[in-house]
Amino acid sequence: MRTEGPAGSFFSLTGSHSRLLLVLFCAFAGILPVQGQKTEKKKKTETENAAATQKTSSLRSEEELVIEGMKYMVRGETDRALAIFEELAGQAPQSATAHYLLATAQIKLNKPDGIESAKRAYALDKSNVYFGKFLAENLATQKKYKEAAVVYEEILKIDPNNLQYNMELAAVYFFSDELEKAISAYDRLEKNIGVTEEISKEKQKLYLRQNKLDKAIDEAKKLIDSDPGESYYYVELAELYSANNMLDKATPVLQEALRINPDEAQAHLLLADIYRRNGETEKCNRELQLVFSNPNFDLSPKIMVMKGYLAMLKANDDRSDAIHLLKLLIETHPNEPNLYAWYGDLLVQTNQKQKARDSYAKAARLNGSTYEVWAALLQMDLELGDFDSLLVHSENALEVFPNQGVFWFFNGTANLVKKSYQEAVSALEESKKLVNSNPTMQKHIYAQLGDAYNGVKAHEKSDEAYEFVLKADPENDHVLNNYSYFLSLRKEKLDKANEMSAKLVKKYPGNATYLDTHAWVLYMQKDYQGAKTYLEKALQDPKNISATILEHYGDVLSKLGERDRAIQQWKKAREMGEKSANIDKKIASGTVYD
């Protein structure tokens, strides 16, 4: 309910300052004593003259109070105006205007006695509909709907055809659950001004609240009868039918709406929903294509429909139709980020990761404020092994979400792979601080920190990070492998390294990386024959043979006295890109440089 007075009413606080003061002054002057007139037949006595002088003085005082109080109201200094109006009401206790002015200040300042002042003003002058409206609106604001209804009923006796008062009376009836009275109020209005969209829709709400669907439908039909060429009225009737599972009645109404206006987007969307509910997928998609491919149709309903369409897809459902519809939407609305995000989701579900990553990147460029888009983009970079992109995208994401630990983790991972170890340490430590309440994430962070600390030669911190993970997850493959390998390179805790790497090769007997790690631990323990056995097992997997494995095999062969075979393996390693400091020396001399 609105609480402002009608524009132009004398108690409105809008309009020009000078006009407002003049109107208030004139209205207020009408309640004050008026100075008597002298006549030739009768002259005033000195006592009468003194009384007249006192009245004139009082008049000026009250005029000044009105002007001063209104001045403060206009300036927004309501607390100062309140004090003036309290004095005014005290001097003129039978003045409706004085109590109205007092009420306006009290209510603006949320004073509990504001309503009582408004009631006093209206009681003193019930012929003033503006005082009544002010009271009724503020009663409604305080949810005193039945009291407000009584006041509206009284002022409507004075101005029965006032559209605003009738609408507000119907509203307070509605809020006080006097639904029949609200309908009667609308009926009276309709009788005077005819069928209108606003009144008809309000009556529909009331009938639906009473579970009188047939009457709500009649109201919708009345709107159509009042303007048969307005296609949207047919859509509204069809919405009523559709919402109440009367699909057979909704369909012809929508078809009539489209006959009148083939570009009525909402009619196409409703028809699509009906076809979907009837299992007529082809017809549903045809209607959606008509809407989605038209750039002149508003995007908002398309977004809502597409969101619902995606939500109904089950895990094993074919995604091709959804992908096609999203393509149409993207073509007609190329700057809508949500569409690219949803398209990326569908592409992930159909294992098109490269395209999905590109779609997420487009969504992020259009609107970088969505966390889920950045998270999906970084995940795709990681799964694609594109660490250059992961580094750039994680930095971009952190500009918007600097307090998201998972983004720092992605950034740390990218730096780690790029061998920017100090940057990796810094990012991962920041991630650790931000996700300290997530044990699963903590394990991943500490595992990466173990690698990063090793990269900056902070071996003690590296070991502590790995131990943190193994305490919570003794079977962690990543940590068992890297921890044991780095210990072997440092020639420290070799028994522990042997135990960890042996656990891995027992669990994954064909994994070339784990076999190589265990072999290198054995090599550092001078068990060259054992190392050879495990390296030869690793070499049985040609797809996963690395330059490092070949170099290690050459080192073992050299220790076992097989110089020529060792040189052969080192050469193969160099051809595969091995760039260890001593590879050329080994080939030249046939000797290992430990």
Give me some keywords for this one.
single chain, 32 helices, mainly alpha, disordered N terminus, elongated
Provide an overview of this structure.
The protein is mainly α. It has 32 helices and no strands. It has a domain of about 50 residues. InterPro entries: TPR-like_helical_dom_sf, TPR_rpt.
What does this entry show, briefly?
The protein has 594 residues and is mostly helical.
**What is the approximate shape?**
elongated
How much is the average pLDDT?
87
Q: Name the structural class.
A: mainly alpha
Helix content: over 70%
- Cα distance spanning the termini: 88 Å
Low-pLDDT runs: 1-60
Number of helices: 32
Name the quaternary structure.
single chain
> Measured on Cα atoms, how large is the radius of gyration?
42 Å
Strand fraction band? under 5%
Could you give the count of β-strands?
0
Main β-sheet: number of strands, strand sense, barrel status?
none
List the helices and strands and how they pair.
Layout: H1 17-29, H2 46-75, H3 78-91, H4 96-108, H5 114-124, H6 129-141, H7 145-158, H8 163-175, H9 179-193, H10 197-209, H11 213-226, H12 231-243, H13 247-260, H14 265-277, H15 281-292, H16 299-312, H17 320-332, H18 337-349, H19 353-366, H20 371-384, H21 387-400, H22 405-417, H23 421-434, H24 439-455, H25 459-472, H26 477-490, H27 494-507, H28 512-524, H29 528-538, H30 547-559, H31 563-575, H32 583-589
Helix pairs in contact: 1-2, 2-3, 3-4, 4-5, 5-6, 6-7, 7-8, 8-9, 9-10, 10-11, 11-12, 12-13, 12-14, 13-14, 14-15, 15-17, 16-17, 17-18, 18-19, 19-20, 20-21, 20-22, 21-22, 22-23, 22-24, 23-24, 24-25, 24-26, 26-27, 26-28, 27-28, 28-29, 29-30, 30-31, 31-32
Pfam family, one: TPR_16
InterPro entries: TPR-like_helical_dom_sf (IPR011990), TPR_rpt (IPR019734)
Region (Disordered): 38-57
